[in-house]
Amino acid sequence: MCGLYKTKKAHRNIKLVASVLAWISLGQSAAAAPADFETPEYFASNGLDIINAAEAYDQGLTGNGLTVGISDMPINFTSPEFNDKQNSYNVNDFYPIYTDKDGRKYTLNDEGYWYFSSHGTHTAGIAAASKNNLGMHGVAYEAELMGYPFYSNYSWQGGKGAADWIVPFLKNKDVKVINCSWGVGYSPLVLSELNNINTVKAYVEIFEDDILYKFINSAKESDKLIIFANTNYGLPTPVTTNLAHWMAGKSVPTNSVSVAALENTKLLKQTNYGGIEGDCIVPYYSNGAAFNEDATIVAPGTGITSANSNYAFDGELNVTSNGTSMAAPFASGTAVLIQQVFPYMNAKQIGDVLLSTANSNVTSRLGYAVTYMGDFHLPDALNVFYFDGKKRSLAQQKQDCYEGLCNNFTADEAQWFVDNLPICDFYNTPMEDLIGQGVVDAGKAIKGPGALNARRLDKRDMSSEYTIGGSSAKQALYHIDTAGYNTVWSNNIKEIRVGLIAADSPEKDLQNRYNYYKTNWLDRTHHSSGEKVIGTAFVSSYIDFYNKWARDSGLLNLPVGLIKSGAGQLTLTGNNTYQGASIAKEGTLAINGSVIGDAYSIDHGIIAGKGVIGGTLYNRNTAVAGDNNGNGELKMNGLVSSGTLISQWTARGNSKFAVDGTANITGSTVSANNILPGETWDVLTASAIEGKITNPPDNPYPGSAMLNTSGVVRGTTLKVSAAAANNLGTTDFTVNQSFAAMSNMCAALTANGDNRRNDMRPLFAMDVAAAKTTLSALGANTAAYTMALAQSNVMASHIISSRLSEAFALRNTNVTMPRAELAGDLSAGDTSLSLKLDQPVDNDFWFKVMRNWGEGSNSSYYQGTTLAMGWDRAYGPSWRAGAFISHGNTSFADDYAHNNLKDTRLGLYGGYSQGPHAGYIYLDYGWLDNDLTRQLGGLNLQAAADYGSRILELGGEYTYDLNAHQMKAWHVIPYANVQLSWLWQDGYSEQGAGIFGQRVNNKTNTYGAGGIGVEFKRYLHNGSYGLRLGVKHAFCGADPRLTYGYIGDDLSTYEMRGQLDKTHFILSMSGETEFAPGWTLAGDAMLQKGSHDKDVMLAVTLRRMW
Questions:
Q1: Among 146-150, 424-428, 1028-1032, whose mean pLDDT is lowest?
Q2: What are phi and psi of 356, to 5 degrees?
């Protein structure tokens, strides 16, 4: 048998070689299956394959964004195995001083320091070393690490001790899982022998005041899960750290998990039925799980390769170690993957999943396990644990110990142990007393809990409000708050009840424990070898302690149910065998697999799904048949409903409630999701239907914002019908018109047998808020508003007004006056005077840049830029004429639509100025290009259209300078202007939104407006500046109304409004200066303000005159 190690090692090496070849052949291709993650780096640690880590990686779970706490020696983060860790650190950079056997001290910078401080780096690597094609990688390879020292190999220096080992972790909310690959204290069996500590009470009194154990029990309050190593003494039990919950009076811990070691070097994983086979299953050094079976699991612990803290000095990237210290981080890394996939779970619930999904399908080919009991408080001995009750002779025990030890030692070493150490034999050993709940299984753990365990609950979780098999009964309820997350539990969830450790216990595992304790402690005083059985009195005390806790818990023998709270959906897809009720208190509990017991919707909860409820559904709030896609039937044995029953539509028909027995629907409301007005569906079938619903045809129920539903019973079938109804509450014109339009379109499509009506189902299923938003978006369109904006734009009149006012400006001019003598003869010398006179230039070329911003009603806004240039010349002293060209780009938007308007104009203008009188007139023709998009957010659609328009505009202005003949600095100039335009807009049909796209008719609009006001202007030596105040009023065309319909309805038409305020207050300021002979620079700003809209314009003009 000693040669078996080579055979199994060769078998594993063949698998590794195959994985290397497969990995090389993959190249850069994307991962598509768990096998794609089984690289040489994956196999290098010798543990990831056993815990099925690749199954988790295939689901994208790597620990990304989370942090693992490591309470251990300091971690050497300079190791290349941690290259990708950006936020990993040791708390306070605390590095203990180590002292070797010869008294030499080692500090951080000494060569050899990391040789002594190796343990923390090795365990950290197992939990979360980076996946970087170097050596190995950890379980949660994208998680960060937080290290805080706890102990050293030889002595503890520097003033730190066990008292504060957990404090930094308790304060760090980012750390939920803490790996503690160590153990402190004594086995209760050892203390029973050494100090006559024969009761749990006496054992607790020794440690209950120790701050270390108080911190362990305080971890629950800080929502931390502590993962302890089970230690390496080969004892049947763990030590005090693993039993710290006893100090809190509990037989089962809820915030800690103990991890024993699996003998993984000689395992054969039977993938065809999910089992694991091996020789001895556990290595010689691993402590057993007695007294802590409910909170113990096992993970690979032998021949584990991980990061080498001393790599810089010895050149080895990785080292290999053995121990439960190596097993614990496999569990911690898996716990982090659970935390990633179920972020709403607290630390205790993460532990629930870790324990309940462990693989207990474990078989020993030898039929026994052997450990070497090397506790330094007792003489060394060998333990042999037989799984059956057949007594073996001492000779057989020796032979079995030899065979078992050959798993870890040479034949000579094994023989020496057998010849020189006493043997303690144990019979009727349950597998769980060696491996606890089983082998860590990451692939199963990411699928949710495998059991609802009442032993990890307390009396606060007991309820008598719900039924078991239709009758009121007490049950333990497992509470889960999904906190807004949508998640799936796909394991087959069983229940674990609270029971007594007794020969007649209905709980098989507790019955087996009792048999194990009785056989090996209560009924014997010595082992077959003559060795004294230690701890008999203590085992009896422990049974009493456990059973008292079970009785006091209030949960004894109670079935276990599930109650879901919090927003979000929890979907159960397994075949679940827990006997208690399945209760939705908040959010949705979707049963797509099966549950054996009754189900409830209460308060704000919803029961949904396409699975099977083995008992009765008590629907007190809402039940929805079918999965999230509306597929399937929700089957049940019975129904008692006073809430809402909802069916859903799919292309293959609507979902239904299928009741094997009687359906009592007294006080129920029947409704449907995605039903359309005019449709009738079968919602429920039963062997018999009792009671009356609340929404018969004469009293319909507002099934959504846009329709009413009513129900009727026809024999053993409950039917639902829908009719269009405006349940929107307070609305505006657009929403009301859109509701009418959608109702008409649905009726038209239905009448024509047009399957496009199915596109309307999401709309008619919306609640009030969503429907209002969507209807507003459906009816929104900037086309009419953009039309009004284009015609009311004063761009052209502003250009011409500012240009001609300066072209006819008064300027400082030197005038020579002849001087006469008294006799009337002309003098030889003349007099020169400077006067302000009209001095029109012959030619005037200008270039103008304008920027404007505006706000309209209903949260609309726009901004635009216009470039314009022109030329004019003088025709005599009083007349000017010219031409201009302009191009503007205006972006207009509201909550739902956006229109990019491009406006190009060509125009002619002329002006007159004589004395106080001045005026101008212009005529332009333009082409408008519209690029329209509308977001139909509630329907996830975007409508788009490109269409054109043409515009012809005529305008003019008259001014009268009250100070034209006065040599004053300021001139007061009243003015009056007029603007008239005709716009021809093309019709168009939107693309991209299907039946919801708008088809808009062409439109001609005439716009007319006039304005009056006064200008205050001051002329300077080389320029001028001024201020205008006025009022503009639109007499027609400010509210163009377009006729439109929808692509899904060719017959119905509606009105689109684009109203602007008709009256606006005008305030403008301008200034111009001649900065060089013949060159001027001007700037102006204007505010146009109505009661609901406003426009702000800024402009700069460069001008050349000659």
A1: 146-150
A2: -75, -15
One-letter-per-residue 3-state SS of 992-1041: CCHHHCEEECCEEEEEEEEEEEEEEEEEECCEEEEEEEEEEEEEECCCCE
Q: Which of 188-192, 514-518, 593-597 has the lowest mean pLDDT?
A: 188-192
Residue by residue, DSSP assigns 72-83 as ESPP-TTSGGGT
- What whole-number percentage of the chain has pLDDT above 70? 91
487-489 vs 471-472, strand pairing mode: unpaired
H or E element in which residue 113 lies = helix 113-116
Max Cα distance, the chain (Å): 165
List, as one string, the DSSP characters of 598-641. Answer: -EEEEEEEEEEESSEEEEEEEESSEEEEB-TTS-SEEEEEEEEE
Least confident of 515-519, 580-584, 827-831, 944-948: 827-831
pLDDT digits (tens, 9 = 90+) for 81-118: 999 999 999 987 667 788 888 888 888 888 888 988 89
Task: Give pTM, 2 decimals.
Answer: 0.82
To the nearest 10 degrees (0 to 180), the angle between helices 324-341 and 119-128 is: 40
Which among 1014, 1015, 1008, 1016 is positioned nearest to 1033, based on CA atoms?
1008
Question: In sequence order, which residues have a C-beta less than 8 Å from that of residue 368 and are 6 or more positions away?
Answer: 280, 384, 385, 386, 387, 400, 404, 429
From CA 848, how far away is CA 846, in angstroms rounded?
Answer: 7
Q: What is the 3-state secondary structure (H, E, C) of 276-309?
A: EEECCCCCCCCCCCCCCHHHEEEEECCCEEEECC
Q: Which of 50, 61, 58 is nearest to 300 (CA)?
A: 50
Mean pLDDT of 259-274: 78
Contact criterion met (CB below 8 Å) for 765 and 1047: no
Q: For 794-821, what is each residue's pLDDT tens digit?
A: 776 776 766 666 555 544 455 455 554 5
Task: Yes or no: say if 724 and 692 are a contact pair by the CB < 8 Å rule.
Answer: no
> Taking the CA of residue 464 as centre, how many other CA atoms within 13 Å lie in the half-sphere pointing to its CB?
5
In one-letter notation, the amino acid at residue 485 is Y
Residue whose C-alpha is closest to residue 91's, from 75, 106, 107, 79: 75
Domains of the chain: 4-373 (3.40.50.200), 560-724 (no CATH), 783-1105 (2.40.128.130)
Contact 529, 401 (CB under 8 A): no
Paired with 724 in beta bridges are: 707
Strands ordered across the beta sheet of 67-72: 89-90, 144-149, 67-72, 175-180, 225-229, 256-262, 296-300
Task: Provide the residue type at 187 as one letter.
Answer: S
Distance of alpha carbon 804 from alpha carbon 1022, whole angstroms? 17
Backbone angles phi, psi at 379, to 5 degrees: -60, 145
Q: Letter for the amino acid at 470? A: G
Q: What percentage of the chain's residues is helix, strand, coil (to nearest 5)?
A: 25, 40, 35
Measured CA distances, 100 to 75, 117, 643, 839 (Å): 19, 11, 73, 105
Helix (H) or strand (E) holding 510: helix 508-517
Q: Please count the other Cβ atoms lying within 10 Å of the Cβ belonging to residue 568.
A: 17
Helix (H, G, I), strand (E, B) or coil at 172: coil
The tokens for 798 are 């502003």
